[in-house]
Specification:
It is built from six helices and nine strands. The chain has helices spanning 12-17, 35-46, 88-98, 111-120, 132-137, 178-196, and strands at 3-7, 23-32, 59-61, 66-70, 73-78, 102-105, 123-126, 139-146, 156-171.
Length: 200
Amino acid sequence: MATYRLRTPISEEEVRKLKVGDIIYVSGIMVTARDSAHRRAMELLKAGQELPVDLKDGVLYHCGPVAQKVGEEWRIVSAGPTTSSRMEVFEADFIEATGVRVIVGKGGMGAKTTQACKEHGAVYAAFTGGCGALAAKAIKRVVKVKWLDLGIPEALWVFEVEDFGPMVVTIDAHGNNYHEEIARVAEQRKAEIYKRLGLE
């Protein structure tokens, strides 16, 4: 297990060095997107249109921030992670279409996202849920916000961050998925316990 400090844009070479269990901190540009933003983004991309933000070699955060407008500027009050499994239906295509390198969220993602990370050179990193205030401290400013018609939590927020983390790599670019491994081991142990109890 190693600790890495990454700065956007992040190269595929940098991402391929990361392994499950590594700790990462990110500086530079981070873009948020939840369900509605993923859906709209994929509709636009499939129609041959460009997105209002460039995610190539960037960081995507599954997050619906709490934001307050002060004068003409936005202030992020809290920016905790959203459950990532909700984006599983979109993420593999999203990775391929945008060239995003690091996806941040909580709870892990499934087999399709794992395969896309392996094929295209991306990782998934878990940020602790319930730490929205900590996350907000790492956000230096709101660069811009798009798609506010979707609502503040669902909009595309573009943040400038400094040492955002710590995050744990739980899906690497080599096909390893810590969440699926834990589930597999748990099922195996459950079967062993049932057998000892005569509950097969």
